[in-house]
UniProtKB/TrEMBL annotation:
This is Anti-sigma factor antagonist. Transmembrane segments: none annotated. The lineage of its organism: Bacteria, Bacillati, Actinomycetota, Actinomycetes, Kitasatosporales. Residues 4-107 form the STAS domain. Signal peptide: none annotated. SUPFAM superfamilies: SpoIIaa-like. InterPro entries: Anti-sigma_ant, STAS_dom, STAS_dom_sf. Belongs to the anti-sigma-factor antagonist family. Pfam families: STAS. It comes from Streptomyces griseosporeus.
């Protein structure tokens, strides 16, 4: 059984989600519930995936859903800390730039 740990931090203008564990079909609903509870209108949401060694299409779909949600609400999603397998997945699906550009522009 995969244990996924999700830690959220909220500030006035931004929110952070730190994820530890594998992002897959069984664990992604937990992350989706945590993200859904954060009011994101106009905020920047940073998702730190440095503790995620594996992500399948469920994780990718969740990140794309969050990107669309933030875009519709005037916010911005920044995915950071990608390990090799999740980073390869984003490159293969051509979503890497969509999900990580904002983080690089803030550095």
């Amino acid at each position: 059984m995969n244990d996924l740990t999700v830690v959220t931090q909220q500030y006035t203008d931004r929110a952070f989600i730190t994820v530890r564990g594998e992002m897959d079909l069984h664990s992604c609903p937990r992350l989706a519930r945590a993200a859904a509870m954060i009011p994101l209108g106009g905020k920047r949401l940073y998702i730190d995936l440095s503790g995620v060694p594996f992500m399948d299409s469920s994780g990718l779909n969740l990140l794309i859903w969050l990107h669309r949600r933030l875009d519709a609400e005037g916010g911005l999603l920044s995915v950071t800390g990608l390990q090799s397998q999740p980073e390869r997945l984003l490159h293969i699906t051509e979503t890497h730039t969509l999900l990580t550009t904002a983080a690089k522009s803030l550095a």
